[in-house]
Design a protein that fits this description.
Layout: E1 2-5, E2 11-13, E3 21-23, E4 33-43, E5 57-64, E6 66-71, E7 74-79, E8 82-86, E9 93-95, E10 102-111
Antiparallel strand pairs: 1-8, 2-3, 4-10, 5-8, 5-10, 6-7, 6-9
């Protein structure tokens, strides 16, 4: 698992739009993507989801609030502006230990096997 502040990601200029910069969380160019799903989650105060895994990559952008993301016995504090990248089959769970909602965008990417 990797947790980082999106403002520290390398910024590049948009190739066609002047004054616009891009920060890539995951670049899928050149890969055969079977399915991409973008969702928004709202986790209420005091809520924890059980540890779980996915067979696909899982990238999150924390929009509002604070909380924890757990990986086994490791815990990472997360807050607005953080990016969390979770590898396939990596156990994880989320905890909203604050008095406010925790909101994040979640992008799931399923990439086809070689030769598919």
């Amino acid at each position: 698992m990797k947790v980082q502040d999106y403002r520290r990601l390398s910024a590049t200029k948009h190739p066609e739009l002047e004054g616009v910069e891009l920060r890539h969380i995951r670049d899928l160019r050149g890969k055969r993507v079977e399915d991409v799903e973008l969702r928004i989650f709202v986790i209420q105060p005091g809520t924890t989801n059980p540890p779980h895994t996915h067979t696909h990559t899982h990238d999150l952008f924390i929009v509002k609030g604070t909380g924890l993301v757990r990986q086994g016995t490791d815990e990472h504090r997360i807050s607005e502006g953080d990016v969390v990248s979770i590898a396939p089959d990596e156990p994880h769970s989320f905890v909203n230990d604050s008095n406010d909602m925790l909101q994040f965008l979640c992008m799931d990417c399923r990439i086809a096997e070689e030769g598919s």
